[in-house]
């Protein structure tokens, strides 16, 4: 079955850039391979792997540096700290420093009550 679409319509239908359609068509016409091109770098993590990274960070409350060398995070794969950090940011998790609070004693609390009463009477 042959369907006649313009290159723009084909790109829209396949949800790819308009430049992809003529490039693939030319490769097909010349008999060259139309398989995916090799890209540099490590393979991308899977969605399940991304979820596992997020859940591991949330449940164990550990830092990125502790999460990277853990073999359970990406079994059989090398994964960088920047990848882990990016996956956590995409999930809404960011590095935070714990808040250092001054312990309050009775004198602090009584001072706060007095000043609150002053503010209310103004």
UniProtKB/TrEMBL annotation:
It comes from Trichonephila clavipes. This is HTH_Tnp_Tc3_2 domain-containing protein. It holds the Pfam family HTH_Tnp_Tc3_2. Residues 54-116 form the Transposase Tc1-like domain. InterPro entries: Transposase_Tc1-like. GO terms for molecular function: DNA binding. One of its GO terms (biological process) is DNA integration. Signal peptide: none annotated.
